[in-house]
Specification:
The chain has helices at 6-10, 47-58, 95-112, 127-134, 158-168, 170-179, 185-190, 203-215, 219-234, 237-250, 256-267, and strands at 24-27, 32-37, 44-45, 68-73, 79-82, 84-85, 116-120, 122-125, 137-141, 145-147, 183-184, 196-198. By secondary structure, it is an alpha/beta fold. The radius of gyration is 18 Å and the shape is globular. The strands form 3 sheets. The chain has a 6-stranded mixed β-sheet with strand order 1-2-4-7-9-12, sandwiched between helices. It has a 4-stranded mixed β-sheet with strand order 5-8-10-11. It has a single domain, classed as 2-enoyl-CoA Hydratase, Chain A, domain 1, CATH 3.90.226.10.
Length: 276
């Protein structure tokens, strides 16, 4: 394998034999597996897209040669990393399936224990922002923006409520989650939500250099290191996530205000809270 990893970063060969992906591009042909979200233009996630992401990551289970996962958005989605889960994912008919599919992406990342580098060039909102926050490393451009607007819809992000306090601390997490205000790239860097902010013109060489540096290390050691850091930072993550999911599905979703927030989203109007 050549030391030059730039070709891995920009190439998108056909998906693995027997599995055709509709909403992602997947390249696991080298030591860097490249997962590109590809649902133009805003990369709004649906259940099928989330299942494809989990399937692709899980396919690395026996791939000791793969040292790193690179996660980004397709060029066709310019201006967006991901706007998160679509409105249909909040309906009572689909909320459990959507949440379980979304959370399974994170569980698969944990089980594979390969470092994940997210590249954010544009808006990451809702589930898109949570996904970036959960990655081990994040490189953002000056155009990046992170949003958790769920509180304005009468709900909260169950994954974000678990992830953000561990990543940026509880006080900053509470401010983001309670206000729903957008965070620009520099603010994200200041609160350590991202590792680096670079001009768009410097994005590719910056990503290439970091990928090359990590790829020079021992694959098994990288996996063990991620596992130990995760254990020290997140445990008991699964218990916290289950509790958050239980509250979201069995308490939050029973509130009139959460239903009003969803109706307002669909009807494109400001919600009217009843505070019950």
């Amino acid at each position: 394998m050549s030391d030059d990893t730039s070709d891995q970063i920009i190439s998108h060969p056909a998906p693995e034999e027997g599995k055709e992906y509709k909403f992602i591009r997947w390249d696991d042909s080298g030591i860097v597996a490249h997962l590109t979200m590809n649902r133009p233009k805003q990369n709004i996630m649906n259940i099928e897209m989330l299942k494809e992401m989990s399937h692709a990551i899980d396919s690395l289970n026996a791939r000791d040669d793969v040292k790193l996962i690179l996660l980004d958005a397709a060029p066709e989605c310019e201006g967006y990393f991901s706007l998160g889960v679509g409105a249909e994912g909040y309906t009572s008919q689909l909320v459990f399936q959507t949440m379980d599919s979304f959370h399974n992406v994170f569980r698969t990342m944990i089980e594979i224990s390969k470092p994940v580098l997210a590249v954010v060039d544009g808006i990451a909102s809702g589930a898109g922002s949570e996904l970036a926050a959960f990655c081990d490393l994040v490189i953002a451009t000056e155009n990046a923006q992170f949003r958790q607007p769920e509180i304005k819809l009468g709900v909260f992000p169950p994954m974000g409520a678990v992830v953000y306090p561990r990543v940026i601390g509880p006080k900053r997490a509470m401010e983001i989650l309670l206000t729903g205000d957008a965070i620009n790239a520099q603010q994200a860097l200041d609160m350590m939500l991202v590792n680096r902010v670079v001009p768009r013109t410097q994005l590719k060489p910056t990503v290439d250099a970091l990928v090359k540096r990590i790829s020079e290390q021992s694959g098994p050691v990288l996996q063990l290191l991620k596992r130990v850091v995760f254990e020290g930072t997140w445990r008991p993550f699964d218990e916290a996530l289950k509790r958050s999911q239980d509250i979201y599905l069995n308490q939050l979703f029973e509130l009139e205000d959460s239903q009003e927030g969803l109706r307002a989203l669909i009807e494109k109007r400001k919600p009217v809270w009843k505070n019950r």
